[in-house]
Structure formats: structure tokens, C-alpha cells
Amino acid sequence: MPRRPDPDLEKRILSAASRLWARGGEKALTMRAVAKAAGTTTPTVYERYRDRDDILLALRLETRRELFAALNGTRTLREAFQSHLEFALAHSHAYEVLFDGVAKPPSLHEAWPSFNLMRERVAKRLGGNPRQHTRLMLAVWSLMHGAAMLIIRGGFEGMLRTQTVHACMDAFDGMLDSAAKSRSLAQSGPKWPRNLILGEGKKSKVGNSDGASPKRKTKSGKTRI
User: Fold this and answer.
1) pLDDT tens, residue by residue, 126-149
2) Across the 225 residues of the chain, what is the mean pLDDT of every consecutive 10-residue run?
3) H/E segment holding residue 216
4) Which residue in 146, 137, 93, 98 sits closest to 119, CA to CA?
5) How many CB atoms lie within 10 A of CB 140?
6) Residues 141 and 115: beta-carbon distance below 8 Å
7) Which of 110, 148, 195, 215 sits at 20 to 30 Å (Cα–Cα) from 165?
8) Which domain holds residue 150?
9) What is the 3-state secondary structure (H, E, C) of 108-135?
10) What is the pLDDT of residues 81-95, one digit of tens each?
């Protein structure tokens, strides 16, 4: 009797890959190690994925879809924020892979649906178009991700974990309330560069301000362009 295909095999492969990556990074993620962790054979893994990068791409895309589905089911910004945290903590290994090197290609040039969903909701609350609120969204994103990784990597449990989540939620509320009063968040430092574009797939880039070369200091301490 021919062997029946395993409908859960690809899910097991991706789950194994996320665990290996979270534990040991690039060195731990070999096709042989993935096969062993997934309870299958190396040739079987190669039948479905060309190489390690192909596995990571599939894992990022799946995790993004699942995260977006969780956020898309919410009604308010606060609920979306909380849902993001809950997803990160419930799927910590896949979440770590998703954000590893997120500002570098190829992740940078892939769609960021959850980032855009929240940015659109920020625009609806404050007015203007979503791209005008990218800096505020980056602050929100940093708050969410920082709290998630602190809990995950720090091994926060019990009341410490609960208090961290709620402290983060309170900070989020304060941030949005402050931005709502002035239609923007108070800003220090330089203006947002025109060529720093996030969450827009192939349009995304993290170049220097207005395409200028980065400033660097000479040995004498003087700034050179």
C-alpha cells in the first residue's frame, strides 16, 4: 500500500526550523538538523524546500500571515497592540525568526501587513495618510517588540510577565493620547528622511537622510561628510 502524504509535514518542518534558529541561529539551521527535528528525512525536506533560505522565507511568510490574521480580527488600536504581544509570546520561536534581520534584505523588501494595518489605524485616529505616521508607528512597533523580546529572552514569568505587559499597554495608551492631542508625537532629532520607507515591500529602504552620505568623525574629532 502506498504511503499517504503527511498533511502536517510542512508545518512540522517550519516549526522545527524556527526552534533551531531561535536556539542557535544560522549555524544550527541545516537541512539535516531540520529533518531530524521534524521527524523526517533530509531528502524529504529538500523535496519541499530548495535550501535554508527557502525554509526561512516560507517561515516568515507563514508567521506574517498568522500575525496579520490575529491583528485583523481586532477592532481597536489597543486590541491590535495587545494581540501583537500575545501572538509574540505564544509563538516565540517563529516570532524571533520573523524579526531577525527585519531591516535587511530580503525581509526589508517583503510586505509587512501587520505594520501597515496598525499604521492605517493610527492615520484614521490622528488624520492624514499612513506614511505620515511611520515614525510614530516605529515607536509603537519598538515598544511592542521590545517588550515581547524582553519577556521571551528574559524568561519573565508570573506577575513580572503580567506587569510588563500591562506597563507596556499603559505606555502605548499614553503615547497615542499624547499624539492625538497634537496630531503627532513630539519629535527630537532630525526630520524623518524622505528615503526611509518602511512596510511597503519593494519600495522599502533605509537609506541615509535625503540620500546623503553618512557623517563620520575623523581622528581629530571633526565631522566629515
Assistant:
1) 999 999 999 999 999 999 999 999
2) 66 92 85 94 94 93 95 95 96 91 94 96 93 94 96 96 96 93 82 93 79 46 43
3) strand 216-217
4) 137
5) 25
6) yes
7) 110
8) 60-205
9) HHCECHHHHHHHHHHHHHHCCCHHHHHH
10) 999 999 999 999 899
Main-chain dihedrals φ then ψ at residue 196, nearest 5 degrees: -110, 100
Question: Could you tell me if 9 and 38 are in contact, meaning their C-beta atoms sit under 8 angstroms apart?
Answer: yes
Neighbours of 75 (CB within 10 A): 8
Which residue type is seen at 142?
Answer: S
**41 and 100 housed in the same domain:** no
Cα distances (Å, whole numbers) of residue 82 to 88, 123, 125, 138, 160: 10, 19, 17, 16, 17
Task: Tell me if 223 is assigned to some domain.
Answer: no
Domain count, the chain: 2
**192 and 169 part of one domain:** yes
Residues 28 and 86 in one domain: no
